[in-house]
Amino acid sequence: MPVGAGKVFEDLPEPEQLAFVQSLVREHYVAEKGEFSVFGEITCYRYVRIYDQNLRLTIHGEIALVEDRHFEPGSTSITVGNKTLNTTNSPWLRGTVLRSGELPE
Fold it and tell me: Which residues, including other chains, have CB under 8 Å from residue 78's CB and lie 6 or more apart?
């Protein structure tokens, strides 16, 4: 993931990676006005740093919880009329850095 000035996210030291993710969280929250489409109010973010560790970040980008386990997002779905879309395994959730709902570029 390019982060500017020729730097690549994976090549940054861990503290700089975290600082970058925290800034993305703050920017995303402000840009989306604290709401996530049909799901409502954004209450936190997850940063999956490595397979068996994840961080829960507040809407201000602060670390609220460190979990030394693999993170699996909860089950989500959208129902309109008689059609239900299971969004748990949607491509826009897989491989995202923040699992925030932003569509990958």
Answer: 38, 84, 85, 87
pLDDT tens digits along 13-48: 899 999 999 999 999 999 989 988 777 888 889 898
Q: How far apart are CA 31 and CA 80, in angstroms?
A: 26
Single-letter amino acid code for the residue at 16: E
Which parts of the chain are beta strand (E)?
A: 2-4, 7-8, 35-36, 40-41, 45-50, 53-57, 63-67, 77-80, 83-86
69 touches 63 (CB < 8 A): no
Report d(CA 11, CA 66) in Å as an integer.
Answer: 22
Secondary structure letter of residue 29 according to DSSP: H
Q: Structure pTM?
A: 0.65
> Which distant-in-sequence residues (6+ apart) come within 8 Å of 19 by Cβ?
none
Residue 26: CB atoms within 10 Å: 17
